């Protein structure tokens, strides 16, 4: 199972002004924000991020899309930009994506879109 690294989380907490306490168990889930998903994707594209930072941010992006789908505020334009990143850097993000694919009995709403990337 893949987990984002603490130093990548710390960087993103500060850079994105996330409301982290430092005690998050599921960082990307606890700090996801469907209202900021476009901002997160733009940040990914506009900043020179390390491998660990990219993976952590992509996990936050996917979690935010999952929440957006639950709240019926899914932004397809932002999804297309995120999908482009996933496809271009697939090897980097495959472990993150694998976690969100789920299983038939325990599937996420975002799973179908991610399966299309797989």
Shape: globular
Main sheet specs: none
Q: Mean pLDDT, nearest integer?
A: 92
Model regions low in confidence, pLDDT < 50 over at least 5 residues:
none
Determine the fraction of residues in helical runs and give it as a percent range. 55-70%
Distance between the termini: 17 Å
What distinguishing features does this structure have?
single chain; 118 residues; mainly alpha; 7 helices; 0% strand; globular
Describe the structure.
- The two termini are 17 Å apart.
- The mean pLDDT is 92.
- Helix 3 (37-46) packs antiparallel against helix 4 and helix 3 packs parallel to helix 5 (76-88).
- The protein is mostly helical and 118 residues long.
- The protein is globular and about 35 Å long.
- The protein is built from seven helices and no strands.
- It has helices at 6-15, 27-30, 37-46, 51-70, 76-88, 90-101, 111-117.
Question: Mind sketching the topology for me?
Answer:
Layout: H1 6-15, H2 27-30, H3 37-46, H4 51-70, H5 76-88, H6 90-101, H7 111-117
Helix pairs in contact: 1-4, 3-4, 3-5, 4-6, 5-6, 6-7
Write a short abstract of this structure.
64% of the residues lie in helices and 0% in strands.
């Amino acid at each position: 199972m893949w987990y984002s690294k603490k130093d990548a989380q710390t960087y993103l907490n500060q850079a994105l002004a996330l409301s982290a306490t430092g005690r998050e168990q599921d960082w990307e889930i606890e700090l996801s924000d469907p209202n900021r998903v476009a901002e997160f994707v733009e940040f990914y594209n506009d900043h020179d991020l390390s491998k660990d930072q990219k993976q952590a941010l992509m996990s936050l992006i996917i979690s935010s899309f999952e929440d957006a789908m639950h709240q019926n505020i899914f932004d397809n334009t932002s999804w297309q930009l995120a999908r482009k990143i996933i496809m271009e850097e697939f090897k980097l993000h495959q472990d993150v994506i694998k976690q969100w694919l789920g299983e038939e009995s325990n599937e996420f709403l975002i799973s179908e879109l991610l399966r299309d990337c797989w």
